[in-house]
C-alpha cells in the first residue's frame, strides 16, 4: 500500500489554514507533516490546531526536513519564484498557489528548475480538479449545444476597504487580474482547448490601492473567431458566473470557481428547454491534493503540466500590458 505524501506547508495564510490544510487532512493520499512560518509562535499555534507533528520558525528549516516530501506554497505572489526554486533544489515536490508567478519568464524558470531537480510542480487552480469540469468537457464534445462560439466569465467581490490586504501591493503582484481574473482566463483555455491569439483589456487602476487594477474587463481572442469576454474585480458586487455559448444552445455554470458538494449543478439551455445537470459534488481542494499525490507517485499523469502555468502567465501578462497601455496585445505562439 502506498504511504501518504508528506506535506510541509510554507506559510500560514488564510488560503492555507482555511482551505488547503483541511483538504490535505481530509485526503487519503496525503498527510500534514510540518508547517513553517516566519516566527515559531504562529506555526506552533497552527500545528497544535491541526495536530501537525512539526512546527518551524523559518522556511529554510522546513526545506531541510528529510521527512517532508512536498511543499504547499501560499505565500504572496512575488515570493513564489524564489521559494519554488529553493524547494526544488531541496528535492521537494511543489504545489504553488495561483498565479504561479509574476510573469511567464518567471514561470518558465520555475518549471525548468523543477524538471532539473526531478520534482513535480503544479499550480493550485483547485476548480479544475472538481468533477464537474470533465463532465462539462464531455457535454461540449457531445455537440448538445452545437459548435462552440464564445465564453463569458465573471468573478468579482468587494474588499476595497481592507487597506492592509497584500492584494493591494503592486510590487507584490497585487490586483484583480492576478488574484481572480486568472480564473476565467484559465477556464477559457481549458474549455476551448486552444491558446489565445490576442487580448484587449480595460482596467480601473486605483491610486487608493497602490495603483493595482481593482476592476478589469476584457476580450480575449481565440482562433476560429472564438472569444472570451470577462470581468474581474475586487471593488465590485460579488458575482461568479461562467457561460458557454454554442450554435444550438448554451451552458450556464453558477459558482464556476468555488463550487464544492451541494452547489455543483449547472444548466443547459437547448432545444427550447432547460436541463439541470447535477454534477458529482466534491471538495476541489482535496481532489487537487489527491491528483497531485497521484502524479508524484507515478500513479497517473499530471492533469496539467507546468507548461500550462507558463501559458496562463503569458495570457495574464498580455492582459496587464493591454490594460496599462490601453491597446490590443497580440500573443505570438
From TrEMBL:
Record key words, sorted: Oxidoreductase
Residue ranges of every copy of the Gfo/Idh/MocA-like oxidoreductase N-terminal domain listed in the record: 5-122
GO MF term list: nucleotide binding; oxidoreductase activity
Domain of life according to the entry: Bacteria
InterPro entries: Gfo/Idh/MocA-like_OxRdtase_N (IPR000683), Gfo/Idh/MocA_domain (IPR050984), GFO_IDH_MocA-like_dom (IPR055170), NAD(P)-bd_dom_sf (IPR036291)
Ranges for domain GFO/IDH/MocA-like oxidoreductase: 136-252
Higher taxonomy: Bacteria, Bacillati, Bacillota, Bacilli, Bacillales
Name the UniProt record assigns to this protein: Gfo/Idh/MocA family oxidoreductase
Record-stated family: Belongs to the Gfo/Idh/MocA family.
Amino acid at each position: 500500500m502506498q504511504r501518504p505524501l508528506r506535506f510541509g506547508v510554507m506559510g500560514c495564510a488564510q488560503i492555507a489554514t482555511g482551505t488547503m490544510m483541511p483538504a490535505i487532512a481530509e485526503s487519503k493520499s496525503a498527510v500534514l507533516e510540518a508547517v513553517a512560518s516566519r516566527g515559531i509562535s504562529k506555526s506552533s499555534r497552527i500545528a497544535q490546531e491541526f495536530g501537525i507533528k512539526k512546527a518551524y520558525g523559518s522556511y529554510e528549516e522546513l526545506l531541510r526536513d528529510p521527512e517532508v516530501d512536498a511543499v504547499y506554497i501560499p505565500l504572496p505572489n512575488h515570493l513564489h519564484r524564489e521559494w519554488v526554486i529553493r524547494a526544488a533544489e531541496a528535492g521537494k515536490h511543489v504545489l504553488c498557489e495561483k498565479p504561479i508567478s509574476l510573469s511567464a519568464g518567471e514561470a518558465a524558470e520555475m518549471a525548468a528548475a523543477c524538471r532539473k531537480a526531478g520534482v513535480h510542480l503544479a499550480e493550485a487552480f483547485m476548480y479544475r480538479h472538481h468533477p464537474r469540469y470533465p463532465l462539462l468537457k464531455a457535454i461540449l464534445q457531445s455537440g448538445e449545444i452545437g459548435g462552440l462560439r464564445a465564453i463569458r466569465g465573471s468573478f468579482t467581490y468587494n474588499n476595497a476597504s481592507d487597506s492592509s490586504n497584500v492584494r493591494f501591493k503592486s510590487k507584490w503582484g497585487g490586483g484583480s487580474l492576478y488574484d481572480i481574473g486568472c480564473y476565467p482566463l484559465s477556464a477559457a483555455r481549458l474549455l476551448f482547448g486552444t491558446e489565445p491569439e490576442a487580448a484587449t483589456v480595460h482596467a480601473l487602476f486605483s491610486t487608493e490601492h497602490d495603483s493595482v487594477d481593482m476592476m478589469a474587463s476584457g476580450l480575449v481572442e481565440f482562433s476560429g473567431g472564438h472569444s472570451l469576454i470577462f470581468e474581474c474585480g475586487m471593488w465590485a458586487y460579488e458575482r461568479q458566473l461562467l457561460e458557454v455559448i454554442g450554435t444550438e444552445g448554451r451552458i450556464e455554470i453558477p459558482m464556476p470557481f468555488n463550487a464544492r458538494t451541494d452547489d455543483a449543478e449547472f444548466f443547459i439551455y437547448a432545444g427550447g428547454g432547460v436541463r439541470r445537470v447535477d454534477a458529482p459534488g466534491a471538495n476541489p481542494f482535496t481532489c487537487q491534493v489527491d491528483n497531485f499525490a497521484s502524479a508524484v507517485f507515478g500513479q497517473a499523469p499530471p492533469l496539467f503540466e507546468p507548461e500550462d502555468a507558463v501559458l496562463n502567465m503569458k495570457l495574464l501578462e498580455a492582459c496587464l500590458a493591454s490594460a496599462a497601455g490601453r491597446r490590443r496585445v497580440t500573443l505570438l505562439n
